[in-house]
Amino acid sequence: MLNPTFFAYDEESTPDIKLISENRRGNITIQDITYASPQGGRVPAYMIVPQGNGPFAGVIFVHWSQRDRTEFLEEAITLAEIGIVSLCIDAPFLRPTSLKAPISSKTAARDLGLQIVADVRRGVDVLMAQPGVDRQRIGYVGHSYGATNGGIVAGVEKRIKTYVLMAGYASTSQVYRVSTHPMIAQGREKTPPAEWERYLDMIEPLDAVYYIGNTAPASILFQFANQDEFVSEEQALLYLEKASKPKQIRWYDSSHELNGQARIDRAIWLCQELNLGPLPASIQTKLG
How do residues 93-122 score in pLDDT, each as one tens digit? Predict the structure, then answer.
């Protein structure tokens, strides 16, 4: 099922970054920007930039479906203190009409999946275009929606050195077939069976399990919750099993949102994998 050309985009085109506004938090600069999506439309994002000339690492953050680009904003501001330039992007389905790409309602489920992958890949271009960012030290952090689609990114985008995938689905199509969670079960029950099956057939090629095994040499940290109401232990272990090495998995006594210890652990992971040195105790305190 792995087909990197499925997610190909024009690597020679420009990100066309536009600055909407800029403000400062101490020595950290927070830019509200948009950049051109390879699939059409524009991607709203926050760029969080440390003080100085670098060299900096770069990290792309993608939120879960109940949130938006603000989910990781405070975390990114804290990480800027240790030399990380962050790009926090909005998912395609959250964008105002003026920024959305034209998508057919009949193929929206597939097209939106293709778009978020293309937008992350173009986000790598955006980070690499920033002064002082080391092209060899780019990371990715995704939560739920961001972790599920991050598994696809990991299989097709070879410029990212490490991934943190938080509470994501290994196989969305499988979950939608069997899950008893009310949000999913109600949608399944309200949709005619033939239409539901067509929908599942459309999204199955975007299941992360088909791509996550092609991540090496990039590393992966999986983070899952013991009390997750969405992601089962079976899905978590399937994701881990299908992923290429090097990989680690960590469990947290929390719900789907995860917790402060998870924030600390992924910061330690990013420091290790992006060659930033030990995470200072002061930063651990802020993240916890």
Answer: 998 888 888 776 677 778 888 999 999 999
Alpha-carbon separation of residue 104 from 91, 95, 202 (angstroms): 17, 16, 13
CA pair distance 11, 132, nearest whole angstrom: 21
Residue 45 CA, chain-centre distance (Å), reads 13
Q: What residues contact residue 105 under an 8 Å CB cut-off, 6+ apart?
A: none
Place of tokens 């489920």: 109
Would you list the domain boundaries of the chain? 4-287
Residues present in the chain in total = 288
The DSSP 8-state label assigned to residue 154 in this structure reads: H
Helix (H) or strand (E) holding 87: strand 84-89
Digit-coded pLDDT (tens) for 132-191? 999 999 999 999 999 999 999 999 999 999 999 999 999 998 888 877 767 777 777 778
Angle at 16 between CA 47 and CA 44, to 5 degrees: 45
Q: What gap in Å lies between CA 5 and CA 148, rounded to an integer?
A: 19
CATH dotted code for 4-287: 3.40.50.1820
Residue 171 to residue 64: CA distance in whole angstroms: 16
Distance CA 178, CA 213 (A): 24
